[in-house]
Specification:
With about 170 residues, the protein is of the alpha/beta class. The protein is about 50% helix and about 20% strand. It is built from 7 helices and 5 strands, in the order βββαβααβαααα. A 5-stranded mixed β-sheet has the order 3-2-1-4-5, with helices on both faces. A hairpin with a 3-residue loop joins β2 (about 20-25) and β3 (about 30-35). α5 (about 100-105) packs across α7 and α6 (about 115-130) packs antiparallel against α7. It is globular.
């Protein structure tokens, strides 16, 4: 992998109050790392993206990165190259949230049906009742978010190649 830029697929979850509850980063070939609750600090976020050259998100330009900047004072866009793959999806007429795009591409999640609102409810159940199954489901959901980002990214690259070959 010498010479290749490492990609980190990043996604956050938030509480009803808007605080960051989970930061997940998936680096292909290395796995997923997640920060939970009090572990979500600017220093820890920088640590889990330290070896990454490019951060990729879905709707991160409008949600994930501004929330990280506002809540942690950490401007990842000024430190890393960033690609919001949502805009590449739009070029291929793939609209909607990440889960909708995944379904349009034929991907099926184990956490099918869980969405951002339920993620906030799961966090509330963890905080209020120490509901371990709720936290486990939330972590699984976030893990699928970041790992499916790579699948969508790869599919977009295939679609880009087809579109390029047609336009030659």
């Amino acid at each position: 992998m010498a010479g290749q830029v490492k990609i980190g697929y990043l996604d956050i979850e938030t509480s009803y109050q808007g605080s960051i509850t989970i930061v997940g980063v998936y680096v292909p070939g290395e796995g997923t790392r997640q920060l939970v609750g009090s572990e979500v600090t600017s220093a820890n976020v920088l640590e889990i993206v330290a070896e990454v050259g490019v951060i990729k998100t879905y709707n991160g330009d409008r949600f994930d990165l501004p929330v990280i900047k506002r809540r942690l004072g950490l401007d990842l866009k000024s430190l890393y190259r960033h690609e919001d793959i949502m805009f590449r999806c739009w070029k291929h007429r793939l609209k909607g949230g990440l889960k909708s795009v995944e379904r349009q591409l034929g991907f099926v999640r184990e956490t099918e049906g869980v969405d951002g609102m339920q993620a906030m409810s799961l966090w509330a159940a963890w905080i209020e009742k120490q509901d371990q199954p709720a936290l486990d489901l939330l972590l699984h959901y976030n893990r699928e978010d970041v790992e499916f980002l790579e699948k969508v990214d790869q599919k977009l690259s295939q679609l880009d190649a087809v579109a390029k070959s047609v336009n030659l």
